Structure formats: C-alpha cells, structure tokens
Amino acid sequence: MDSIQSKGQLVHFDTWKIGNLKGVEIQAQKFSSENDSIVFITLRKDCGGEYYYSWEDAFIFQKELPSLYEAINTIKSNLDRETDHNEKYVYSTKDNVMVYAENPGKGWNLKLSVDAHKSNSYINLTTAELDKLVELLQQANRKLDEIK
Q1: pLDDT (0 to 100) of residue 70
Q2: Which residues pair with 110 in a beta bridge?
Q3: What is the pLDDT of residue 89?
Q4: Which residues lie below 8 Å from residue 47, measured CB to CB, with a gap of 6+?
Q5: Order of strands across the sheet with 12-21?
Q6: What is the pTM of this model?
Q7: Torsion of the alpha carbons at 46, 67, 39 and 27, rounded to the nearest 10
Q8: What is the pLDDT of residue 82?
Q9: Which of 19, 82, 97, 139 could form a disulfide with 93 if both were Cys (CB 3.0 to 4.6 A apart)?
Q10: For residue 20, what are the contacts with CB-CB under 8 A and spacing of at least 6?
Q11: Do 28 and 147 contact (CB within 8 A), yes or no?
C-alpha cells in the first residue's frame, strides 16, 4: 500500500549530540511523523569518503542495549586471560555496529565498527575506551528515555 500512496509524508528529525569516542560521534535521535515516532542511538564516523559521502551512520535501538552491555562485560572479563590459539568475541547489532575482541595468542585487540562491512569504519579501543563507550551509550539511553 505504501508504494501506491498518493502523498508524501513530513518527517521531523531531532538530534542530540552526546559525545565523541576517537572520531565516532554518539547521538540520540528522534524521528517523528504524523502517525509515529521512534527514538534510537546513532554512531557516526567519518570513513574518509569511501563512497560519494564520507560519513557512516549506524543505529542502536534501546532494546539492543542490555545484550550489548552483557557482551561488553563478557569481553572485559576475559581480557586478562592468556590463550595459545586465536580466539575472538564479536557482538553485532541489528544495524552492524560491531564490538570485536581478538587474541591471536599474543594479547587482546579491541575494536568498534560503525559498519562491519567497511574496513575503514573500525577504531581500535583500549579497555578504558570500551568503558567510555558504555558510559556514552548510557548517557544516550537516558536521553532516549527523556524524549520518548
């Protein structure tokens, strides 16, 4: 039915900047139309113009946050562990935001990706920066609760 609709629809966008982590902007957003509204967190990274635009945006919905936090806690609880083989933890949201930890037998590497399909959307993280990511997501989540 939407494809044969005889009129367009006005959408109102509100964006609140929450903070920045190594070039990844964390935002709270609300999209509203005459019939509906939705709130979500956006991660935006300048990927250097791989395509006709340089920014990559990815969404994290509120219902994804508990499992994302749980995944990050699992990753953090294993970072002190040594391994003699290649071991990985990967968590991906519905929109391909990825938190990634790998130990090739020589210590853990942490990464965040705004789009798992683009190699230039990754940033390397320290444990402290992973904590900062959680803090920024929690701030964004509080904003989403406020603007619903």
Answers
A1: 98
A2: 101, 125
A3: 96
A4: 54, 55, 56, 114, 115, 118, 120, 121
A5: 12-21, 24-32, 37-46, 55-60
A6: 0.89
A7: -30
A8: 85
A9: 97
A10: 26
A11: yes
DSSP assignment of the chain: -GGG-SS----EEEEEEEEEETTEEEEEEEEE-SS-EEEEEEEEEE--SSSSSSEEEEEE-GGGHHHHHHHHHHHHHHTT---SS-EEEEEE-TT--EEEEEESSS--EEEEES-TT-GGGEEEE-HHHHHHHHHHHHHHHHHHHHH-
pLDDT digits 0-9 by tens, 94-130: 999 999 999 998 899 999 999 877 778 899 999 999 9
Query: Which ranges of the chain have pLDDT less than 50?
Result: 1
What would the two tokens of residue 80 be?
A: 């002190």
